[in-house]
């Protein structure tokens, strides 16, 4: 059976790239084309649970990435796809639209626990796609005043991040406790990633 010296990473996240490098995995980016509506894949369905949502979006992203690879006529190799969401009170907190949206999201999280879910999938070189793996972590935020949240939002860090914060950045000062996978909260759970890439015969 052939092995592969690299994986295609279908993600623009610099954090996922950093985590792959931490594992020693070689990768090439496989990003959406300008004519693709990547944001549309992340639209919620009415009544959808966070678990179902993050896994469904991961599968859609994997299918889109596979089509992208075939259209580009690139060499065969597995494709790695992930999607992360934050959930509290049954709500799915996506990426904030602006600073005030970020503050509103963060105000939902302070002084309590929330869940961070990351779904992860690998499209094998032959196009086969297994059911996504799901990493579930619990994060507890301290009680933080609005002024501190506004300062954090003004830094620009929350923009582009599910739940309006990055665990590896300045928001660490708000986090009292984590139960689960730190790398999963960052957006790429390394234990599950390594297991899936070994099954896909990626060398690292």
UniProtKB/TrEMBL annotation:
| Annotated compartments | Cytoplasm
Q: Which reaction does it catalyse?
A: dTTP + H2O = dTMP + diphosphate + H(+); UTP + H2O = UMP + diphosphate + H(+)
EC number, UniProt record: 3.6.1.9
Pfam families referenced in this protein's UniProt entry, alphabetically: Maf
Tell me the cofactors it needs: a divalent metal cation
Active site: residue positions: 83
Major site of localization recorded for this protein:
cytoplasm
Function in brief: Nucleoside triphosphate pyrophosphatase that hydrolyzes dTTP and UTP. May have a dual role in cell division arrest and in preventing the incorporation of modified nucleotides into cellular nucleic acids.
Taxonomic lineage is: Bacteria, Pseudomonadati, Pseudomonadota, Betaproteobacteria, Burkholderiales
Q: Which GO terms describe its biological process?
A: nucleotide metabolic process
- Mind listing the GO molecular function terms for this protein? dTTP diphosphatase activity; UTP diphosphatase activity
Cross-referenced NCBIfam families: maf
Species in which this protein is naturally found: Caballeronia insecticola
Q: What is this protein called?
A: dTTP/UTP pyrophosphatase
Q: Per the record, GO CC terms?
A: cytoplasm
Asked whether the keyword Cytoplasm is assigned, the reply is: yes
